[in-house]
Amino acid sequence: MTMDLTESTSSTDAARDEASWPTQQRLLCTPIPGPASLARQAHRATSVAGGIGTVLPIFVERAGGGIIVDVDGNHIIDLASGIATTTVGASHPEVVRRVREQVGRFTHTCFLVTEYDGYVEVCDRLNALTPGTHAKKSALFSTGSEAVENAVKIARAATRRPAIVTFGHAYHGRTLLTMTMTAKNAPYKDGFGPFAPEVYRAPLAYPFRSGLDAAGCSAEAMAALDDLVVKQLGAHNVAAIVVEPIQGEGGFIVPPPGHLAAIQEFAHRHGILLVADEVQTGIGRTGAWFASTAEGIVPDLIVTAKGLGGGLPLAAVTGRAELMDAVAPGGLGGTYAGNPVACAASLGALDAIVNDGLLERAQRIGEITSAHLAPLVGTHPWVGEVRGRGAMQALEFVRPGTLEPAPEAAASVVAHCHRAGVLAISCGTYGNVIRLLPPLTISDELLAEGLAVILEGIRGLA
Ligand SMILES: Cc1ncc(COP(=O)(O)O)c(C=O)c1O
Question: Is 145's C-beta closer than 6 angstroms to any atom of ligand 1?
């Protein structure tokens, strides 16, 4: 296997020696899935719970840069990054080097029992990188859901208020509290009630579906938020408004300009904390460290996960120091939260973003993607909108001439991509959105090839 680091993904020579990427080329040896994957799939069906879904049923042998190699030897172009978990790629040399070094010293001690530097270093980095120049502190966890839950705990402890407001189309996770905060019923909530109390939902500003201009769409959503918080709940009962700066699972919905700033102003006018769930948008994905920055907001608490861990399970809540200190010692944490190997991986990923210029790379990925896809709007009847920021772009499919969601079109294009060796995934409340989340270390050539396959799939729609 060779490693092909392009100009935009340069790393130190020492780090390169530690990892080996698969050849950065799409290569199909068998149909997808191939016989070796199918055999494992048959076995998996007898061993793994049916509730665990998989988008593309291939078993992976190796992955890195923009390529995933399956057990049949197929080289698949990765436009999903494990749903944005492997933002720097699945085996970035700097992550691999740091993880190897850490594992050689110790795998874990539990930060609640004894301390280690990596935990504090990740907190320092997050305190410095997140929006705002005020004093900040962080707490580490393992998953995005766990971190969102802890942001709610911190907000309630700091404000001594019970209610939490989330939005339509929101996705915050699969635990009891976070699935309650999530909007979509099936498959996330169906049959799993009763749900957690004191979670309320305001309608989301969804420009494409509102039928209004940006200002009207924002004003309509703000009026509904005011009605919920002030009239129905009583603002003094609301601890936090939790928002994804660009909604992920719900369909990569980008708010109208100024809308998040309006939510922030509303929250602060009522003594409510603004919590940004940047689990999917954060850590360079949108071309800035945080999507909140482009929106001009400074959240009181900001939740990160996915890309933060460089592929290992790590999540965080970062926020105003006085809020983070509102919880008494022992009130936060978990025996695996902030595991030292995950912290080492995180420091490697954060260094890679800086040293490899991956914020600029995310912006470039956004430019290349929209250059390929934006011309479809108005020229292809099934494509309603192309939207996103940086390396977080999406296509929303509609029935020709209408706003009616077309999940069958999204599914057909995704299936075409999979057959052709391109890993694309769908999302959206209506299942009619294809989201593109390539690793930031994908080369221009592979990205363009993956997009060309998507275009082929779209042109093939009846
Ligand atoms: C915005 C957002 N919040 C929370 C989560 C939950 O994170 P995890 O799957 O790590 O629990 C996700 C996962 O997709 C997410 O996109």
Answer: yes
Instruction: Work out the number of other CB atoms within 10 angstroms of the CB of residue 113.
Output: 8
- Domains in the chain, please, with CATH? 7-91+357-459 (3.90.1150.10), 96-355 (3.40.640.10)
Q: Which of 55, 87, 145, 301 to mutate to test the pocket of ligand 1 (most atoms within 8 A of CB)?
A: 145
pLDDT at 216 over 90: yes
**Structure confidence at residue 404 as a pLDDT band (50, 70, 90):** very high
Q: Which atom of ligand 1 is nearest to the CA of 83?
A: 14
Ligand 1 atom with least separation from CA of 173: 6
| Tens-digit pLDDT profile for residues 116-125 | 999 999 999 9
Mean pLDDT of 317-323: 98
Residue 19 is predicted with a pLDDT of: 60
Atom number in ligand 1 closest to CA 247: 1
> Does the pLDDT of residue 4 top 80, yes or no?
no
> How far does the centroid of ligand 1 lie from the alpha carbon of residue 107, in Å?
25
Gap from CA of 152 to ligand 1 centroid (Å): 15
Cβ–ligand 1 contact at 249 (below 6 Å): yes
- CB-based burial label for 455 (10 Å; 0-12, 13-18, 19+): middle
Residues contacting residue 171 through CB under 8 Å, at least 6 positions apart: 182, 183, 184, 188, 244, 247, 248, 249, 250
The answer, yes or no, to whether any atom of ligand 1 lies below 6 A from the CB of 278, is no
Q: What is the DSSP string of 311-362?
A: TS--EEEEEEHHHHTTSPTTSS--SSTT-HHHHHHHHHHHHHHHHTTHHHHH
Q: Calculate the average pLDDT of the chain.
A: 95
